[in-house]
């Protein structure tokens, strides 16, 4: 591992004080209800097996009705009630929704969009992270809360803010401009260094005065991409500084672990590998994409990413939904059993907490059509019955807490690369980093492989296979690390439009893919993107002497220059008939694959079978719709099986106990009924 690579995940190794099991619960917003409802809430929470709720996340206006005047009556009562009922508290700092007085007093603290529009109040989450007034006010309310509740016996966790980076991250306000210049001075020291890094000789953009450097707001044409890439880094840093300021204020008065809820895979403005080092326990929120009938795959990717940024440590699912959300174009209700399947997939992928937005459905406001643990239809509803059943199931799974997931495959996920690739004026608008990540992840999911997400610079030596679906920006360190990985016996697969630019969005010396030339035995002479709707044919034989299969590619082709690689797929047509399309290269004791076109998830199957063979990854033997994940404890292995399809056979070698039913199985496998979940403890 390069010496400069920081460790992955939080330093904290503890757990939530006073919680001796998995966590179950959700966001609780009692301020939306008269006090007599709270007693019923507490009773029903006990009935459902709830042991943790997140409170106070949007309570700033109530807690500080006028600037500097605090009133904790409401929170005192709620915390005492929860405590009396044995329910632990995840206490929010309410800084994602400043009160009306804040906007009235500090109108310049509002976020300004790239087009120059200041975002008005009346919603939430629209304060400039660079505003000194916001920083002062948010640290003050966090401090007051920490002083008052920091040692309260009900307190199990601090929940700072809510989903940093959402609904907006970029801010082009006057505060941002000042902070941005300071950040640039810290990064580059001199304007000469900035001019060199940004390549300002192009289009005559050379700066001679720091005051002339602007935020990259909307302009007449494409704004300097290196400037925009740095602005993405600055935005991430500005948000992270808001978190660490509140966290440090809390730590002055409380030893309880501090977290903030991420939105892994959905909010790309925050580099969660960086953020995870700053929290005590990694926490995530996840909502299914209702338009996707196979939303469980996106869920799995989000959960695997969350575990990966946590460095493999257990993490908390702080929000998901019992049924439909309210903010997508068509909000599809979850089918019977789907909530349990979703919950068990998070659990299987390392979550030690299963929580929801929110406990009781709101009658008013923007989210009244969002599902809840206790829906508008009340306790006579299907959702409530499933909530109670899930609580009972989680109560039987306490021994999984703290156990770990192991992955043989790493898929590269690098925020900086995504920020750079998603800027203007790329060779084809059809090239999407998420599309390639999703396609390769989906293939691995269907083939039953458990996947970690990893940065190119981190230690990869423990993985049998590393897949790079979208490594447009690849640093020299990252490329050297990948090359060492192959040299040392690893199998690396790289997809097109990777290894193109360095950390300043400047093309690598030597041309496209040059930093991976040794590992892959090939470079790219010219990009050959396709027109909309065009496809091409690749004659593919996998290099194993088989008859060529015809595979259809779309979006992209390359004109490749071979540097030792074996050609295992050749373009039969398209922009370069006869040219190399897929290559395989032995380097050191490992193998580097390069794929220069876009194969869809079905087509990838043929290719990946050969890649798995090189990596020594056996077939899982599990039917495609049966999701199987394993968690490993000191003395036991747990198999979590989630059936998204028809009745399916789960292969099992040796006896096991079904933790949900208590049934013993003697080995040889078991049938998991359509839609069902199983959690098995394997013996010995
Ligand atoms: C986010 C927020 C919650 C709520 C849910 C609705 O995750 O954190 O406050 O708005 O979305 O899905």
From TrEMBL:
InterPro entries: Beta_galactosidase_C, Beta_galactosidase_Trimer, Class_I_gatase-like, GH, Glyco_hydro_42, Glyco_hydro_42_N, Glyco_hydro_b
Domain Beta-galactosidase C-terminal: 625-682
Domain annotation Beta-galactosidase trimerisation: ranges: 407-617
EC class (word): hydrolase
Enzyme Commission no: 3.2.1.23
Catalyzed chemical reaction(s): Hydrolysis of terminal non-reducing beta-D-galactose residues in beta-D-galactosides
Keywords: Glycosidase, Hydrolase
Glycoside hydrolase family 42 N-terminal domain boundaries: 27-396
UniProt similarity note: Belongs to the glycosyl hydrolase 42 family.
PANTHER family in the record: BETA-GALACTOSIDASE GANA (PTHR36447:SF1)
Protein name (database record): Beta-galactosidase
Species assigned in the record: Myceligenerans pegani
